[in-house]
Amino acid sequence: MIQIEKGALFIADAHYPTHGDTLLEWLHHIDTGKLVVPQLFLMGDIFDLLVGGLEKSYALNAEAIARIQSISRHTDIFYFEGNHDFQLRKIFKNIKIYSRIDQPQYMGYDGFVVGLSHGDRFSSGWKHGLLSRILRNPFILNTIKWLKPHIIEQKIAHLSSKEICHELPDFETKAKEIFGSYSDADWVIEGHYHQGKKYEGYISLPSLACQKQVGLMGEAGIVFVSMDEL
Fold this sequence. Notes:
By secondary structure, the chain is an alpha/beta fold. It has seven helices and 13 strands.
C-alpha cells in the first residue's frame, strides 16, 4: 500500500484556466523549490477541460501542463482524473494516473487507511455515470476531434461563465452517504464538491478556484491552507 507522507500537498478543482491563474502560482512554487513537498496529489478538475487525444484542449492548458511535467521529474505526483480532465495517460507519462474506473484508491498514513477519489464516483447519480462513460469512449472522442472540433471552444466559453462556487446543502448527510461507500477507510479525501469542509472521517477538499486553498497533510491529518499561510 502506498504511504502518504507528511507534507504531501493536495490540489483539487482549480478549473484552470477559466477560473484564474492560482494553479500556476502553486505549481511554480513547487517546481522551483520555493515550496518543498514530498508528494503532490492532483485530485481532479485541475483543468476546466483537458482530454487526452483532443489536442485542441492541450493548447489551452500548455503552461500548466509543462509545469506539471517539470515537477514530475523531481516529485511524485498522483493524479486522480475528474469529470473535466481525463484520458490523461496520453499526456502525462511520468505521473501515476488514476482513471475514474480506478477510483477510489486506498493508501496509508500513520497507521490509518485513507480512501481517495476525485469525488464523482459515488452519490452523483446514474446519469452522471453514463455520461462519464460515453465521453471516455474512443469513438466519441475521435468523432469530436475530427468532425466537431469547434465543440472545444464552445465548451470553454460555457465553462468560463459557469458559477461553480456554492455551498452544498445538507453537507453532513452527503458526507455520511459517501463515506459509507468506502470499505474499511478511516479517512476519505475527495474533491469535486468545492466545499473545503470536514465531517468526521470525510474530507471535502477546498476548490482552488473557489476557496483559493489546498490540503496539506500534517501530523493530525489534512489542514486547509492558502498560499500566504506557507
